[in-house]
Amino acid sequence: MKQKGFLRTFIIIMVVVLNVAADQVAKVIVRNNVEPHSYTQIIGPYFTMTKVENTGAFLSLGENLSPFLKNLILLGLPIGALLAMLLYVVIKPVDTVLTLAIASVIGGGIGNIYDRAVYGSVTDFFHIRFSDILQTGIFNIADVSVMVGAGVILLYSFSSKKTLTQQSS
């Protein structure tokens, strides 16, 4: 089902705002109440909280870059990508599920860009350990928004290609 006009734009804005708000509220709570590198079990040793300030990108990639390159790569490129996604989702009428997924990626991206611009780092605090050899890096709510949105976009992409292939047969 495709949404049009004001309602569609309102939905996009609300999903972006809710993602940014959830991320920033969680980060304020963590910044004010969790000691750096402390370790708190939420669900045994499998789901834990620890506060780190990530000055790089995903898994701290790029944290040793020069300030100019770091700003270009970790602020400039993401801002450009998010603006392109926003234009795409506002201008091109796409399925509601795809609209929500893209808006989630945008909201999560804004949450982390805001941190990087204001604090010079991104506050990460969740960690999931599935086993001794399988675990996540330390992440935040914005990362969840981006990953879930990207996952839905990926699944949507595969399902729409399958539907198009079936329709053309």
How does this model look, in words?
There is one protein chain. The protein has 169 residues and is mainly alpha-helical. Strands 1-2-3 form a three-stranded antiparallel sheet. The two termini are 23 Å apart. Strand 1 and strand 2 form a beta hairpin. Helix 1 (5-33) packs parallel to helix 3 (96-119), helix 2 (67-91) runs antiparallel to helix 3 and helix 3 runs antiparallel to helix 4 (141-168). It has one domain (5-168). The radius of gyration is 18 Å and the shape is globular. The protein is 63% helix and 11% strand.
The total of helices stands at 4
Summed up, the domain count is 1
Identify the strand order in the major beta sheet: 1-2-3
The value of Rg in angstroms is: 18 Å
Q: How much helicity do the residues have?
A: 55-70%
Secondary structure tally: strands: 3
Major sheet description: 3 strands, antiparallel
Residue-averaged pLDDT: 87
Termini separation: 23 Å
Strand/helix succession: HEEHHEH
Secondary structural class: mainly alpha
**Global outline:** globular
Q: Approximately how much beta-strand content do the residues carry?
A: 5-15%
Low-confidence segments, ≥5 residues, pLDDT <50? Answer: none
What features would you highlight for this structure?
mainly alpha, three-stranded antiparallel β-sheet, 4 helices
Break the fold down into its secondary structure elements and pairings.
Layout (H helix, E strand, L loop, with lengths): L4 H29 L6 E4 L3 E8 L12 H25 L4 H24 L2 E7 L12 H28 L1
Antiparallel strand pairs: 1-2, 2-3
